[in-house]
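SEQUENCE-TO-STRUCTURE ENTRY
===========================

Subject: a protein chain together with a token-level encoding of how that chain folds.

Sequence line: the amino acid chain in single-letter code, read from start to end.

Question of interest: how does this chain fold, as expressed in backbone structure tokens?
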Amino acid sequence: MNIKKIEAYSLFEFCQTVEQNIKDGWKFDFESNENFPSAYGSMLVAGMVKDIAISPKDTISKDNADTIPDTAEDNTQEYETVIKRGRKPKQ
């Protein structure tokens, strides 16, 4: 995964850099803490990752969606659970 760090001391410079990177195919990484956009005093920091494009042959069309076999099996078993609550009865 390609990661690009952006560090700027002015909001104007930060926005220009982010705008150019988005046009070049980069996007914000909101999944990790270290790349999450944040401000430390007057310093603005963000990590951006390269957006990988999916080729048209990798996508599944609606016509082909019906031909994909469903291999999932229902392996659930029914268990009877008895939960006894309260105090034990006196003997």
Q: What stands out?
A: The mean pLDDT is 77. The first strand starts at residue 3 and ends at 8.
